[in-house]
Write a structure and sequence with these properties.
240 residues, mainly alpha, 3 domains, 2 strands, flat
Amino acid sequence: MDYNKNCKCQKIHHDNFLWKISKIFRFRFWFLATRVDARVLSYLYLLLTCFVAVLSLGLAAKFCSVNLIFPSLGPTIFMQFYAPSSPMSSPRNTILGHIIGCLVGLFFYWVTLVTGHIPGTVDLVNIAILGAAVGTCGTIMGVSGVLHPPAASTTLLIVFGYLGDPINILAFILASILVTGEAWLVHWIAGVEFPNWAPAKGDPGPQLRTKLGRLHLEKKETQLTVEEIAARLATRQRLD
């Protein structure tokens, strides 16, 4: 009898413990969204997560005595917490996109120095170099499918000479990795879907809206609407 009573008490304690643990899930985004206005909750989530992300970068920078807060990481943080399901916010696009931005920026920073101009000054040659840098960065991201818009501002920062030091560039890449890792952890805790690396779905390619309608440039003929087929024919695009 005593043995059965002890087993029953242990089961009750075990069930109570599991019940208390289950209450933690009430703080997850997916549960709160069933109890609170989803729009208000999403904005509060954005406010809190962006604050924590920048705060953690600042604390890590203070601890390591290395600058880890860079302007182009602001849009990255916003994208990852405002639109975590967007392919542009995925870890692959974020990290590789900023690496592309750094490499392109370094190349055109070198071009600026070779042509005998001072980075950061505003003259016709530097303006042309800046335009070429952003255009090259965007084209490489578009062709490779690694789309992350804030990477273009990374290119500008480097060409302007703000990140000319290799240590700063390495610190920037490290910061982008830290921010992405934190976004993954926070979304996992909150129950928000966020890819481990690559986006769940491939990017559909450039989407251009014209007077003839929206053009999805990578759709196959069988997936096109009549309006989209007409728009392609009118703009001399291939249907196969």
